[in-house]
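User: Sorry, folds how?
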Amino acid sequence: MQTDPLHFRDAMLDDAAAIADLVNSAYSGPDAARGWTPETHLHAGPRTTLAEVRGILADPHHRILLCHAPDLAGSVQIDASGHLGMLAVHPLRQAEGIGRALLDHAETRAVSLWGVPSLTLTAINLQTALIAYSERRGFRRTGRREAFPHDEQPGALRQDFDLIELTKPI
């Protein structure tokens, strides 16, 4: 379990490279297999880019929240509609409660910033451990599915997956 105190803050533009590195390491980097959320069996290449992170940070309808413990340990994106994305915890810090704390903080920030009534996220349907984790955090499957954006995230090793939507009233 997490022993260092957790500190949260909104990311700034100069955090973009560290965020991209964190997200990529959690899902597709060389350390990803040491965590429980790797996507290396689904697609090759990075999960995000520096340009994508910078674009998110420049949009006033989005925030990326950072968790330091004491170094950067996790991040999550939220937007004005209550959508969560890019939830990432460093692979060597997973299973310490950082993801749960990030989700709780994201919920609080989404309400304080935009007054959203619910949070929504999408997950790759083959990521059963991640879906089960989200359900333990109060998210429920909506039954909606959407195609995985293979055109935007090239390098798919498989084509037999899509995204499922989960939501949580707050």
